[in-house]
Structure formats: C-alpha cells, structure tokens
C-alpha cells in the first residue's frame, strides 16, 4: 500500500489503484499520521492539528471516531490488518516511510543534493528527477483547511523548489541547458525573488546562446530587489552576471562530445542492455572483437545513455601511442599540452592528469588495437590519479589493465538455413546487411519491404512438402593414401622455424604499425626479433607461408 501526500490525499493498493478514504476530516487524519509514518503521534498533537484553537467539546471522543472511520476505510481498501495502531498516548500508521510519497521525496532530494555537492551530476539528475516525479500537484491539496496543513505544505513546497534548483544545476553541469530553461522561466515568474533560480536561469540562457535574455533577466531581478526590498543582488547573482559579461560560463560548452551516428542501430539491443549497467559501475570496460563487428557503434549507443560528461576519442589516426594524451586533450577542448605552463607539470600526460583529476567523465577510446600498449599504460595512470574518470575502450584485444572488465562483441546472428523466409529476413545480420545495402543503392530493399507474395515461389514460406526419393550422388573412386601423400604440399621450412611462424600468426598484434597487413608484414612483429621469422619465411615457399599465416587475410 502507498499513500499520496504531495498532491490530493489518496491511498493506493499494491497494484497502484486508489480506493476511497472518506471525508475531509478522515483524509486530514491520514495525512497527519502519514507524515510521521512508523512513529507514534500523540493524541493532544493530533487534536491540535485537526481542530486547531476551536476543538469540539469532547475532542478525545471526536478523534477516536475519526480513527475508527480511517481504520474501516483502510480495511475495506486492502483487506489487511490494522494499519492504524494505538501506541502509548497516541496513534501510529504502521507502514514503511518509503510508502509515503512525501517522505520518499525528501530522502531522494537529500541524496540528489549530496550528489550535486560531490559533483556526481549524472546520479544527481537521476535522483532528483525521480523525486520530482512523485509530485501530482500542490502538497496536501484537498486538506488545506486543516490547521496543520498550511505549515506542512509550505515546507514541502520549499523542498520541491530547492530540488528543482538542484536539478537545474546538475543539468547545466552535464551540458543540457535547453532542458532547464523552460521550467526555470516558470519558476522565476512564479517566485521572482528566488535569486538562485534566477542565477541558474541566466546561466542556462547564456549556455543556450541567448546572452541578451540572460542579461535582461539580471536587470529585472536587480530592479525588483531594489524596488521591493531595497537590497542589492546576492553574491551568487552577481557572480553569474560577471561570468556572462566575461564569457566565462562553464555551462556554455556542451559536455557531451559524441559524434552523430550516420547509421541506424541494428541487432545489438541485448548487448546494449547488458553493457549500459556495466559502464555505469565499472571504471574500465573494453569492447573486444574482430574488425567490423560493431564495437564502435555499440560504444556510442552506450555513451549516449550516460548522464554526465562524455567524450569520444578516435585512436585510429594516431601513428604513435605517445600522441594519445594530446588526442584526449584535443577531444576535451583543451589547449596544446606540449607547451608547459610556468610552474606546471613538465610532461604531457601529467598535465592531462591535472585536467581530469576533479572531473567526472566517461572517456570513450575507440580503435586502440594498434597503440594498445601506450593506451593501456595511459589508461592505468589516469584511472589511478582521477577518481571520477571512467573509460570505455574498443579494441581487437584487451588492454590488460588491472580492474579491466572485458565485453566481447560477437558477430550478429543469422537464422538457420532451413528456417522460414520471414525468420531469415528478421535475423539481425540480414537486417543490418539489407539496411547498409539500401543506403548504398536505392534499388536494394530492406527486409521490411519483403513479403511472401513478392518472394520467388521456390522460397515462399508455406507448408512443408513431402520429401522425394533420395538422390544418389555419382560414385567417386576411392582416394588412395599414396595419392594423398603425393599431393601433400611440401615445405622447405624446417619444423622449428615453422613453429615460429605459427606462433607469429596466433600472437596478439600489440605492436603493429597499421591495422591490416600482409603475412610478410605480420612476421616483422613476432617474438625473437624480426630476423627469426624473416629468415624462416625467406627459405620457405609462398604457399607454405600463406598456409601457416592464414592465407594472407587480415586479422588471421
């Protein structure tokens, strides 16, 4: 059972359906008990809160009568035991405080404010939106005539306004000014003397590119304070005004630096559902898999779900992993870190640490495989020095950093070949191929455009036909072992050097110059230096080398 206080008073069953409680006195009694759920409220206090300075002649009997009506209404609504219990010198509503929306709102709002103070703005947004979503209207809306209701409603309303200001501050910190300008404008219009709300509105307007309106809002607030209160603007309002004049408002720059995907997100909903909570709780997550499996697209989709600052860094253009720190700084909008400021750290990575040390951030490092050693070392250093940093990397192999959580990205599945045509067309791999092909050629149709009527008769789904007589394959002469031995390709590569080539072929390429190489180039980065595989390759036939290294295909 749940009880609604922030709005009209109501009681709801476990399935969320409300049920009638009674008249105004019974609803006021329920509100008074619910605001102190789980605790005993004295009879004298209840009499004062319900009847004020003019109680009835027999106030104790009148209170007991209202309690009996409330108990009967609750029993009829949920069919449970006594929820209103007598205890000591008063009564107690025997429910969990979380069952009362006003108390749950207070707890969530307090946690949201603490998250704002800790600069965990993504968590603050989630908590405060959940808290404000509990409000269904003015607090104690239908029992405002009760003597206790005015003071309690005023305190709840003030808490709601403070929560809205906290939510606006968090939204500006994560780069979402357009989300707050609307309700902050309404809040300032209704409460023109709330200086914090006006300062946040000014910052939001400036961040949304409306500088003139931000300055006009300050002038309106300054005149209003002078005319009605004879006071000057607060320090917070003056700071916001000066920041706008100096173009030094941090919220003016969007904190969600993600490239816009040019293709649709197909076939990875299950992986995204598993990846999103993993990214939220882990410091380092690496998406691994062969090239072309969709690691980058999955990382972008996961990053778009994160509340807070997100930055995407493309590692593929880097020739050397030493440039990784400067690439991250460039993506964050920072200046050239190669020029050392007076008194600052000497090396580029140390200056990047200074930039990120107090910054809650999700950093997406894409295509790390060709500079994986340098990226792994830099990631380890940043994670140790920057407690608010999280990293989501994509690579063909793991970074092998302490605390890393691997997330293999498999190939998109296809339907069995003997399944119906509709099932084959609905397979994620087929849908992805059809959509990408349709983007290249207008003559290609996506699976949604297919229908059984338009399919060839031999491929239309329908009832299974009775199998015909088995067809006999032409009889083949038996293969003689001697012929097999005669046809087996011989290699001039000695067994020990052939083993070296096999080791090179299956060893992770953690130090290769490019993303795709021929087998000959691949042997340059094997164990034991380049002379061992090069000498072995030079004495063997090209067919033997290709047989060992996978036929010359990239990534084998």
Automatic annotation (TrEMBL):
Residues 1-95 bind DNA. The keyword Ion transport does not apply. It holds the Pfam family Trans_reg_C. One of its GO terms (biological process) is phosphorelay signal transduction system. The keyword DNA-binding applies. Residues 444-556 are annotated as: Disordered. Residues 532-545 have a biased composition (Basic residues). Residues 1-95 form the OmpR/PhoB-type domain. InterPro entries: AfsR-DnrI-RedD_regulator, BTAD, OmpR/PhoB-type_DNA-bd, P-loop_NTPase, Sig_transdc_resp-reg_C-effctor, TPR-like_helical_dom_sf, WH-like_DNA-bd_sf. Keywords: DNA-binding, Transcription, Transcription regulation. One of its GO terms (molecular function) is DNA binding. Gene3D superfamilies: Tetratricopeptide repeat domain, Winged helix-like DNA-binding domain superfamily/Winged helix DNA-binding domain. It comes from the Bacteria. Residues 444-463 have a biased composition (Low complexity). Belongs to the AfsR/DnrI/RedD regulatory family. PANTHER family: TRANSCRIPTIONAL REGULATOR REDD (PTHR35807:SF1), TRANSCRIPTIONAL REGULATOR REDD-RELATED (PTHR35807). This is OmpR/PhoB-type domain-containing protein. The lineage of its organism: Bacteria, Bacillati, Actinomycetota, Actinomycetes, Mycobacteriales.
